[in-house]
Every structure is written in C-alpha cells, then in structure tokens.
Amino acid sequence: MPFYLQRGNIPHKRHTQFRQPDGSLYYEEVIGAEGFSGISSIAYHLHPPTAVARVEKPTPFDIQYVEEPQLIHRHLRGGEVKSAGDWLTGRQYMMGNADVRLALCLPTENMDYFYRNALADELVFVHEGEGELLSPLGTVKFTQGDYVHIPRTITHQWHIAMNKPSRFLVIESYSPIHFPKRYRNQFGQLLEHSPYCERDIRTPEETAPQQEPGNYEVKILKHGQLHSFFYEFHPFDVVGWDGYMYPYAISIHDFEPITGRIHQPPPVHQMFEGHNFVVCSFVPRKFDYHPLSIPAPYNHSNIDSDEVLFYAEGNFMSRKGIERASFTIHPGGLPHGPHPGTVEASIGKEETHELAVMVDTFKPLQITRGAQAVEDKNYIYSWKTTR
Ligand SMILES: [Fe+2]
Fold this sequence. Notes:
3% of the residues lie in helices and 36% in strands. By secondary structure, the protein is mostly beta strands. Among the domains are: 55-62 and 81-205 and 245-252, Jelly Rolls; 254-381, Jelly Rolls. Strand 20 and strand 21 form a beta hairpin. The mean pLDDT is 95.
C-alpha cells in the first residue's frame, strides 16, 4: 500500500499478451482488496495460480473468548506465554473484537506449508527474533523492532531464525491497515510532519520464480477454519508484478517521536490505522520541556476506546509492576492514569527509553481463556493509595 512498485518482468500494457520464451502465455493475476475499488497488484505467473490438485477437510482455528465480559483494568503477563508451534499454529490469542484480534506467537519451528489469511490483514510486531517473509511478490527481511504488514490475500511463508528466541505480537485486522490519512498529502506521499517517510519502508526484494511442479499446500484462514488446498505449482512462480498491494516492513526504531513543551496525547504516537482501531508506537524520546511540565500522563477517561499497551522494552514511567512483554488493557468506561507516586517521580526527568506498542480499539475488546491464564488479578487495585 505505501506506494506504487514494479518488480521483475511485466508487459507494457496490462491484460495483454505476455509470452514465455516457449511462446506460451504467462498467467496474469490481479491481487486486490475491496472489490476492484481498493489497492491491487498484478502478478504474472509461470503456471495458473488456480490449479488445485486436492482439497482437505477444514480444521477449526478460532479464538476462544472467556464467557462473561467484565469491565475491569487488566494486566496480562505476556512474558509467561510459552513457545509452541509455528508461525500460525503457535498463535496464542489474547483478546479481540469484530475489528481486530491480538495474539502472541513464540514459534519453535518453521512452516513447511504456505499460508494466507483470507479475511484479515496481519500486522506483526517483531519483539524478538529475525527472519524472512517469503511471498510471490518477493522477500521481506525482518528483525527485532520491525512491524511487518501482510495484506490479506497475499500467500506467504515465514522463515524464522531458529538459533534465537522469537516473540511476535500479531495484530489481525478485519479491514485494510494503512498509514494515517493526516500524514499523507492528496497524492499519497508522506508529509514533512509525518513521523516516518517512504525511505523507512522496506519493500519486497526480488526473488527468482519457483518453477518446480509438485504438491504445494496452502492453508487459508477463513470463517474460523483452516482450509488446506494442495496446488500443482509453487505459489511463488511469479516473474514480475506491479501495483500497491505487497508486504513490507518498517521499524519502530525509525518512528521519529513528536514531543512538546507539555505532555503530548497518544495520537502523536500513531503509526497505523484500520477500521475502528489505531496502532501507536511509544519510542525513546525527550520529555516535555515547559519549566513546570509533568512528563507522566494525566488521568483520563476515554469513553470510546479500549486502550491496550504491549510493553516491549524499558521502564514505562507511569506504570508499576509491569513486566517485559506485559499487556495492559484499560477499557473505556473506567478512568485510568499513572500509578501512585509516578507523577511526582516523573518531574524533572528529561527522557525515556520506553518502547511500547499501543492498540486502541473503538469497540470493546474481550479477552481469551489464554489471556486469563496469565492475568495479574490484582492489577485493578494497583492504584490504591492506602495499603
Ligand atoms: Fe491511557
């Protein structure tokens, strides 16, 4: 989505004859979203992308919410979530609603199949680990601190370096994820006041098309089920493509913080948005420089947001008892704010080294049974001023 790209060989005119060295036609595929009104790319395959040899019975793959929603502040010890499975089977959903779902994934093996999420864009924050995202449109290398965005409909495969631990925060969005409109001009270019620019976006590197016929399994997630399709040809047999639909990476460390004389509200940290939610990056930065400034945030009641923070690194100055990889959920309807003592303690501080990802949803979130298993049940009392 970030901007128009071309890779490999494509014909001068779309939807015209484009022939292989043996005289046969390449197989054109328009990969798009929102009917024919959203972004798209046009790819040219060596073989038809439709050649299904076998379909297996789907298997359930869905989120398990707790039965009773509850209005309460929560702290989930994400650091206690155990490693398991691969990039897909290792997903341990923590919370979600009809717009977005959040999972942690600490895979211990690589996938020997291909995967496509047919309903959700996936935005992955790489908390720990490194590797490559392989796709028909090229390879995106990723490392700690990267966000990797895979638009839905893109078949892909994660190759994760297994010689070091991995922890991924997976954000599944049931609407397209994009950069905030206010960061872009009418032509789509990122503006001077945007906290990142096109140079920060790492687009797919060109890879040679895979030619070998075989038996290639693609698992497609839709309707809470994984559908297994076996294809006659490798899904990455693309000789060229162009368009706006492709996976890319951008590092949280390339997000340039916006600071001010007094405390800046969360929208200055915004990096992405989807329908009914935003994703913000809290990065190391200088604190507010008014002579009487209070760097810690004020108490606030944001009735229309459930605020989720994933604590990646450093000490979060307004919170106590929070660990690395913790989540907090502060739902709309309950005021929240800095923990006792942290406001005074923040005065005079000049900078912070905190690193966190925030997901604010405009519809209430529900937690999963897995989240409940790592919940710190005393968190709601952590603002108590008397012992
Ligand atoms: Fe907040």
